[in-house]
Amino acid sequence: MAEKKRRIYSLLRRIYPNKKYKDRLFQRVFEDKKDLLELYNAMNRTSYQNPDDLEITTLEDVIYLSMKNDLSIIIASSLNLYEHQSTFNPNMPIRGLLYFARLYEAYIEN
User: Fold this and answer.
1) How many Cβ atoms sit within 10 Å of the Cβ of residue 25?
2) pLDDT value, residue 3
3) Three-state SS string across 40-82, please?
4) For 60, what's the count of Cα atoms within 13 Å in the CB-facing half-sphere?
5) Which residues have CB under 8 Å from 44's CB, separation 6+?
6) Tens of pLDDT, residues 3-39
């Protein structure tokens, strides 16, 4: 019986891959301000040099609940949101809008 369960579990793992392994990868890659500044410069064709010029404003557990693949920063009075997506997600624009609204709300309160 145990062998049969192992075979079924093995088959299910091949059919339904675990997507959660990527949850925090994007945040971990860019957790250092220097790396995050390089991302910003690459995305915006700028050449900022001082990592202290950016302020990390990423919100915790706001919209994405279990997924932690977003980063938010303010640099030069500009609010930026980056999110890694490995699959197509048609509701990204509304999620982005809600996230930006919460970021601005937190920014205004401070």
Assistant:
1) 13
2) 77
3) HHHHHCCCCCCHHHEEECCCCCCCCCCCCCEEEEEECCEEEEE
4) 0
5) none
6) 776 777 676 666 555 555 555 677 888 889 999 999 9
Among 33, 27, 18, 28, smallest CA distance to 64 is for 27
- Amino acid, single-letter form, for residue 17: P
The H-or-E segment that residue 5 falls in is: helix 2-15
Q: How much is the pTM?
A: 0.66
List of residues 6+ apart from 107 with CB closer than 8 A: 57, 74, 79
Q: Which phi and psi angles does 18 have, rounded to 5°?
A: -80, 110
